[in-house]
Write a structure and sequence with these properties.
Number of helices: 3
Helix content: 25-40%
Strand content: 25-35%
Oligomer: single chain
Strand order of the largest sheet: 1-7-6-5-4-3-2
Length: 140
């Protein structure tokens, strides 16, 4: 199995970053404008992307507001993968986001595309969390 692991510092508070990754309004502002997101454990996130026929579904496995969110892929290329967002609050302020997308079956072209994709999307997340200005990567 192959995992994608990333870390970035965001100059915002943990609640702001958590809302950006766990709520439909937040996801719309940096990732995709066609998304639903139930925040409770067992809830469903459904994300749509241009040119993709079905929503990619992610089930909430863990939800600790301001600290941790774990989503399990149920279909599409994220089937049987886990996305783990950990929010750490360093003494100097802001948030350190540690992200792991685990469970890819191989380091293949799709894995490489997702690695680059997450890096580009997190630029959008950082900008949104720090400024409050929406700039979604994908629009419907």
């Amino acid at each position: 199995m192959a995992d994608i692991a990333m870390q970035l510092h965001i100059g915002a508070d943990a609640d702001t970053v958590y809302a950006a990754i766990s709520t439909a309004e937040g996801i719309h502002a940096w990732f995709t404008t066609i998304a639903t997101a139930d925040q409770q454990v067992g809830g469903l996130h459904a994300l749509r992307f241009p040119g993709v026929d079905e929503s990619w579904r992610l089930r909430v496995r863990e939800a600790e507001p301001g600290k941790r969110l774990v989503l399990a892929g149920e279909n599409g290329p994220w089937t049987d993968t886990l996305q783990t967002y950990e929010l750490l609050t360093p003494p100097e302020g802001g948030v350190t986001l540690r992200f792991t997308h685990s469970g890819f079956p191989a380091v293949d072209d799709a894995y490489r595309d997702f690695t680059f994709g997450w890096a580009t999307k997190f630029v959008q997340l950082k900008a949104y969390a720090e400024t409050g200005e929406p700039a979604p990567f994908f629009t419907g």
